[in-house]
Design brief:
heterodimer; A: 89 residues; mainly alpha; 2 helices; B: 593 residues; two-stranded antiparallel sheet; 22 helices; 3 strands; elongated
Amino acid sequence: MSKQPIDMDEELGMFDKPANVKRLLRIFYTCVVLLLIVDIFYHKHTIFAWEGYFGFYSVYGFVACVILVIVAKYVLRPMVMRKEDHYDD
Amino acid sequence: MTINALPPALIMILGGLLLPLFKGRARQALLLLLPVISFINLLQIPHGSHWILPFLSDQLVFGHVDKLSLIFGYIFHLVAFLSAIYALHVDDTIQNVAGTVYAGAGIGAVFAGDMFTLFVFWELLTISATFLILARRTERALGAGFRYFMVHVAGGLCLLAGIMLQVAETKSTAFGLIGLGTTASWLIFIGIGVNCAWPILHPWLTDAYPEATITGTVFLSAFTTKTAIYALARAFPGTEELIYIGATMAAFPIFYAVIENDLRRVLAYSLINQVGFMVVGIGIGTALSMNGAIAHAFNDILFKGLLFMTMGAVMYRTGKINATDLGGLYKSMPWTCGFCIVGAASISAFPLFSGFVSKSMVMEAAAHGDMRWVWFILLFASAGVFHHAGIKIPFFAFFSHDSGIRCKEAPPHMLLAMGISATLCVLIGCFPQYLYSLLPYTVDYQPYTTSHVLAQTQLLFFSALAFTLLLLAGIYPAEIRSINVDADWIYRKGCRQIYRFCRWAFDGINEWANRTFAQQFTKLLGQFFADPGGNLQKYGYRLLIETSGIEGQYEQMARKISSRSRSASYPVGIGVLLAVMILALTSILLILM
């Protein structure tokens, strides 16, 4: 319950060190690239033809999330966002 | 048939109502024991219909047991037990009773063999749930609880009207396959839809769940929507409309979830998103899709409950739940953080976690039915749910910027409940055959094919890549202290306009009537009857003067009349005068008619 000022002497958490964050990101990017490379060598057994295209799931996942965020931020938010006391009057 | 067991819902509901008689440790023990005893009781009940009571011209069936009702019965007992562990610290009679009765009502509804019994448990769900919201005892919770109650009462009445018409048409109260067609079936369909949080009917969920108590929300997330899923699976399998409703449910809440600040409200939106997958599965109506929908309901109860538990624990320790106030808690609450990540991985359907083995069944059923657009929307929703529930929830609560909050780890009983839930999520994900054996239809389905695992992993990793890059580029929407209006605007703001209009129109009429009749008219009557004989003569005399044109003598005559009537020197009394007048009036009326 307490919000104390951050104690500078306390042990820094794992993600307080930028080097660790950088390392984690590097591992993550490597995984992403590897997953894309696998698609060249492994042909999926699929129901729809397009599922077997190179990188279909990767591209769809990426594009879907970018569209999701862009639409939510630039279309939905201006339409629906109100002050916190909107309903309070 | 006589069996040595009690009706499935009886132990929880009766036990729940007896809780106020116990205090302290005894009550805690009872809270934990009730789901266990009730579960053991359930295991004694064979398949078939039991506890049949005559009712009017038909019958009530308190225990209709088959594979469909049993799997819901099992998971309801399991989650009731887990929620009881999680809520062990709560020493509040209202919450203790409401939570237990609420779970009992859910159990009663899925074992109801006739529509009237279903309706009674359906309403009991609403009433007990309302108390779980009100028990937060804040002004916002009071408003949200009131709205929750009103919406569900409206939905319940819609259901009841449908049941009445259905019974009148079919002469049977049995709750089974209904199918869309008649007015009755539509009313039942929409009545269930309210509890299922269909689009536009949904805002009770995102309005009330984040306002309920910390432990109340854990209970709430499990029963109401899943009871509705059960009812749809029983009455409306293969109804095409459900596919479109479900696809909409899966897609639209994720946009809201991305910009929502209250993390429990983010989870409420993702709850609608997950229920969307189940609704699509029921709409497709094949054995695979039905199994998928039901398996997903089973899994969702566990991982959504787990996620609400972790956010509840954060709230319990920090008193905050907005993403803008939290961050960096992984140092203070490492276990809660870990369990949250397991829940996030499960809802995102990572291979080896529970969501993977059930969501994929619905997806595959949609593909087999060649429903391309539905499949694309569901795939979009799969990527989106990872984005908002899988990454956003753990990231903003436990990582992100350091909020400076240093608190204790969640209390042991909360950790235990979260730990069991998380373990089950992983176990079901790794050994899905045990869950599959409980499903109502026999289907040979293998979730772990190389193609499928690879496809899902690629989808999720590239969703995560999108999140990472958008966040690093500063495009990801910053959390803002705000609220986002939803369809509840219709009754929270729109209805105020109706209210204002009514106040203007009806209050206007009321005021006019008050002025005219209550004040002016009675005043005139009073003046007249103060001296009816004299006044009548004066009016008659004035009329005479005005028509004849003779002037000047009115004042003198009026005074004379007044003094005469004051001294009461009339040959006939006022009563006689009035009687004559009424007789004259009625005779004129008679002649005219």
